[in-house]
Amino acid sequence: MVSSKDTIAKTLRRLQVRNYEGRDFTPHHCLVECLDRDTVFGLLKEEQIVDFYDREELANAILDNGLRLFAILVHIGKLPFLKKFLECDNFSAAHYDEKLPYSKPDLERIFEKDNAGAVKDFLATQWTHLPPALAKDRSCRTLDAQAVLPFEKVEKPSEGNCSTGGFGFIKIAHLYGPEKTPKSTRRKDDFSREVEILSMLRCPQYPHITELHTAFVQGEALSLLMPVADCDLGRVLNGKALSVRGLTTRDEICAALWGLASGLRAVHGYFAEAFDERRIGCHYDIKPPNILCMDGKLLLSDFGLSRLRKEEEGSESAFQHVGGAYMAPECLGAD
After folding, report:
1. For residues 239 and 330, which has the higher predicted lDDT (pLDDT)?
2. In whole angstroms, what is the distance from residue 123 CA to residue 100 CA?
3. To 5 degrees, how large is the angle CA 72–CA 94–CA 87?
């Protein structure tokens, strides 16, 4: 007879998604759909993990942000150790999943002696159930090297899409779910500056400036996540993008250029009314490849060289070393 535990273990394995690096992750919403109250309570009763009078408390702890821990222990065949997690929580108000990822010393204290295999399996499996939640409007995070990125596929942009970044590269990352976002990796100084500036610019939500969803650092990789554009203006002007959605008629193009000018004005005279914050800004790298075409709009992008200074600091920045044919003539001989 197949037990409920075996059935649930098989279901959890089927819920796993293979990412672009060949590593598996389990989306949290799948756990919520799979492990409802009846399932959790029934399994605790079937496995006799705790006495009947403690069953309600443990089930509530699992359902209230403890599903990842529950799934990990089912996955490695150590569900009875749920009782140990309950006994070792020091009456903490913290939820079980908030303590993930667990360290080796923490697990050795919980699993105790003669369970080195269980500790090893837990450490290896917990990352399957901890994919980063790469949601919009979240500040930059530093990810553990073992974190499994929830990208099903990562690929280079098509020839007619976007140019290569000046100090990094651009890839199309197919995030698990409906969204599709590019991933741009840059030099550390430019990355930090661009994250700061785009984070400030998203406060007033300017419609003609590229939108930063979030950013993260993992090992040596520095990544910005943004919506995918149709192409960049450089591709349009050199004939590599012959037709751009929403930018075909004279009126559409004039409206898009007006919007682009308003975006540039927003950088030069930045004001976040909700926070009463003002800045004097300069992009320093305006050129067609740094202007994106998206949904009938022209969006200002690539803020790696940009500055947004407080008004009292003034604007006395030294020349920023950009290349190509887009420099002002007086900058050609600048050191």
Report:
1. 239
2. 10
3. 65
